[in-house]
Amino acid sequence: MRFLFVLTLLSALSQAAPFSLFDGKTLQGWDFDPAMWRVEDGMITGGSTTEKIKKNDFISTKQSYQNFDLKLKIKVSGDPKTGLINSGIQIRSVRDGGAMSGYQVDCGAGWFGKIYDEHRRNKVIWSPTPEQQAALDKAIDVTGWNEYRILAEGPRIQTWINGVYCMDYTETDPNIALDGHIAPQVHSGGIALVQVKDVTIEELPATPGIPTWEKVGHPKPKAAFQNEKGKSLFQGSREWSDPRRWTEKSHDFCRRSGYPDRYVALGKWRYLLHPAWSRFKALQRYRWRWESRHT
Fold first, then answer.
1. What is the residue extent of each domain of the chain?
2. Is the dihedral of CA 170, 112, 104, 115 positive or negative?
3. What's the average model confidence in pLDDT over 215-227?
4. Lowest CB count within 10 Å: 89, 173, 207, 213, which one?
5. CATH code for 15-216?
6. pLDDT in tens, 224-281
7. pLDDT of 171-212, one tens digit each?
């Protein structure tokens, strides 16, 4: 009996007390673009009330977390007539250029309760059941404040929105990292404003032997005109098989996808490649949008 008491006491001591990730005044402890993120009225604020969001942008914790119980309130507002109004909360993620690679707990009309694997598997990996969705629809304020709780322990991720249990996902891929940063997102699209407040986290005991970003490897930047597997998109084309014949003329961002547009030139012709077409696969099908006859 005494032994069990000692074990219980040690377990309780190993769990740190919940603490705030945001002091309500500064963004100390966060990594962000000051042109997009700031503190307004005591809240983490990203986006704009006057301009469309040109690319996905994130404000991430400088510290990495493995197992935790995260709570926060988030509000995503804007005019749907101007484009997509969407956000999400990255967890167990790392920077991948200007993006974040990892799990995204979604937030936005049509996306509440889902988890998207951002800049990695690039797909929804969990959606609410019909029963969960019905309960969420009653509890969610689409353009108002919603309270999120995200519990991550080992390979299991559970979430609640406004007290409604909506996600129970267990990772089965041994090559997926289970640690990383926490990062609210403002999604590209319309005129959107993302506000976050009351951000607290309770760190839980680490899970021995789980895959981490250090073990599986951080995202590696791909050269221009490579697919997700790093293979040349010119492969199989005799005319355009040599990427050295191409030059990158400028770099902007697709409004809807957040992926960079690429201006490329071959001789006197200039084309605009849209990565939104199935992540460069359109290039393999030789579908082009003609931009100008002169480079």
1. 15-216, 222-295
2. positive
3. 68
4. 173
5. 2.60.120.560
6. 445 555 555 444 443 343 444 444 333 333 333 343 444 444 444 444 444 443 344 4
7. 999 999 999 999 999 999 999 999 999 999 999 999 999 999
The number of residues in the chain equals 295
Q: What is the CA radius of gyration of the chain?
A: 22
pTM above 0.90, yes or no: no
